[in-house]
Specification:
Layout (H helix, E strand, L loop, with lengths): L9 E5 L8 E2 L5 E2 L1 H13 L3 E5 L2 H9 L5 E2 L7 H4 L2 E3 L4 E10 L15 E5 L3 H8 L1 H4 L2 E5 L2 H10 L4 E5 H9 L4 E2 L5 E6 L2 E3 L4 H17 L1 H9 L5
Parallel strand pairs: 1-4, 1-5, 8-9, 8-10
Antiparallel strand pairs: 2-3, 6-13, 7-10, 7-11, 7-12
Bound molecules: glutamine.
């Protein structure tokens, strides 16, 4: 189905570092599953996009403020967010997980985080999960603006553990980062493309149509498998 774009150019806000969904490669160019999906969908559906890779919580704010028309950033569809944003059909099944420094033998359960400092990126599902269970497990939370700071914090010992989306941790491990995931992940999070509630409805429709087409032709799998080898 062909939907008519209503704007000459759609501004898409995204995270600054969320590999393998969006990340700056060694050639200085942004790439990743989200980037490839949107670019291909825009091509198929005949609309123009410009990405702003500004960080997760900045992207949420810019979408909310109308500075961006759409957002893709491995963003989990949640009831809370559905109050302010309209989401596309889910395009990726994810989940969140605790990671510790490789060789750390003291953490096997959430209970083991008692008295420890756990990091997460501000405004994320992981940050919400940690805040919801802070009293129960007795850790303290340290918030970071961007992934590089979060992962660096774990490396240097500024935090004892961190929480992030499991495919992102998995990708970091596959790229040689010294991490391990001693606690079973929380399942259920699905990623969606978002617009501000009631705004740019045709953009969501075009995304959904394009996504269906990419799934039908197998190109969706090609894009994902380009970045994640074992489908995780
Ligand atoms: N999926 C998580 C969320 O929606 C994290 C997204 C991200 O950090 N880019 O909160």
């Amino acid at each position: 189905k062909k939907i008519e774009p209503k704007k000459d150019l759609y501004v898409i806000a995204s995270d600054s570092a969320f590999a393998p969904f969006e990340f700056k490669d060694s050639d200085g160019k942004y790439k990743g599953i989200d980037v490839d999906l949107v670019n291909r969908i825009a091509e198929l559906q005949g609309f123009n996009v410009k990405f702003n890779f500004i960080g997760f919580s900045s992207a949420v704010q810019s979408l909310d403020a109308g500075q961006a028309d759409g957002m893709i950033a491995g963003m989990t569809i949640t009831d809370e967010r559905e109050k302010n944003f309209d989401f596309s059909d889910p395009y990726f099944q994810s989940g969140i997980q605790i990671a510790v420094k490789k060789g750390n033998d003291s953490i096997h359960s959430y209970e083991d985080l008692k008295g420890k400092t756990v990091g997460a990126k501000v405004g994320t599902e992981s940050a919400d999960f940690l805040a919801d269970h802070e009293e129960e497990y007795g850790y303290s939370i340290k918030y970071f603006d961007a992934a590089d700071q979060l992962y660096e914090g774990l490396k240097t010992g500024a935090i004892d553990a961190m929480m992030d989306d499991y495919p992102v941790i998995g990708y970091a491990i596959s790229q040689g980062q010294e991490l391990e995931t001693p606690i079973e992940r929380e399942t259920g999070g699905k990623y969606g493309f978002a617009v501000k509630k009631g705004q740019n409805p045709e953009l969501v429709e075009m995304f959904n149509e394009g996504l269906k087409e990419l799934k039908r032709t197998g190109e969706y799998d090609e894009i994902v498998n380009n970045y994640v080898k074992d489908g995780s």
